[in-house]
Design brief:
By secondary structure, the chain is α+β, with helices and mostly antiparallel strands. It has 2 helices and 4 strands. Helix 1 packs antiparallel against helix 2.
């Protein structure tokens, strides 16, 4: 099972690297009052990191389970 997870991870990394390497042209991005010029690969990487971070934070916040102590109190 460990080898399957490793192969899936390697496959996803290769797909990600392919996407990044194929998108090197500069794009203009407006963020509220700022206009940024950056390679599309940097924008893709930043967006991916932001999405991953938000997913981890949401899963940590939603993953807290209620536990009942011996006295019957509910703790989070």
């Amino acid at each position: 099972m460990h080898k399957v997870k490793l192969l899936i991870f390697v496959f996803l990394v290769l797909i990600g690297m392919t996407l990044v390497l194929q998108n090197t042209e500069t794009v203009e991005t407006r963020l509220l009052f700022y206009t940024l010029k950056m390679p599309r690969a940097v924008l893709l990487f930043g967006t991916t990191c932001l999405g991953f971070t938000m997913g981890v934070l949401v899963s940590l916040l939603m993953g807290r389970k209620k536990s009942v102590s011996k006295t019957g109190d509910i703790t989070y």
